[in-house]
Amino acid sequence: QVQLVESGGGSVQAGGSLRLSCEVSGYDYNTIAWFRQGPREQREGVAAIYDGRQGRSKYYADSVKGRFAVSQDNVVKTVYLQMNSLKPEDTGTYYCASEYFDPDQYGGSWSRYVLQSTEYHTWGQGTQVTVSS
Fold first, then answer.
1. Are 26 and 1 in contact (CB under 8 A)?
2. Residues 6+ apart with CB under 8 A from 35
């Protein structure tokens, strides 16, 4: 059974940086994704990293491309989300989630589903990120 523990959240001013960590225990996964949820908002997919039979791939929401970077250290079983040039709209609770996917089952539409929260069944407890203007 996979368990996830996030850390690294905090409060920063706009333009600042934070690095979130998602410590993973267990083995039944090949994708770790980051989601965020602001007050009165739906959970939004931010970034994901797939490391499976088809190699390693990374995915980003348009709102964070060029500013956020997801990486994975298999030695310490931790996935990182480096967040640069933070904006007030990046404020929210950030969650990591894990799942075991077979991209072939998505018929070429894999990239449309990898950042959808409904595709994930294992979640961490979340870490708060607050960006002030």
1. yes
2. 43, 44, 45, 46, 94, 95, 96, 97, 115, 117, 120
In 3D space, the residue among 92, 101, 97, 103 whose CA is nearest the CA of residue 129 turns out to be 92
101 is written with which tokens?
């996917």
**Quick one: which of 26, 44, 48 has its CA closest to 35?**
44
pLDDT classification of 103: cutoffs 50, 70, 90: confident
CB 87 within 8 A of CB 93: no
CA 22 to CA 41: how far, in whole Å? 22
* Residues 6 or more apart whose Cβ sits within 8 Å of residue 5: 22, 23, 124, 125
Q: What are phi and psi of 74, to 5 degrees?
A: -75, -20
* DSSP string for residues in 34-47: EEEE-TT---EEEE
pLDDT digits (tens, 9 = 90+) for 9-51: 999 999 999 999 999 999 999 999 999 999 888 999 999 999 9
The token duo for 56 is 């390693």
Question: Quick one: 110 exposed, middle or buried, by C-beta within 10 A (0-12, 13-18, 19+)?
Answer: middle
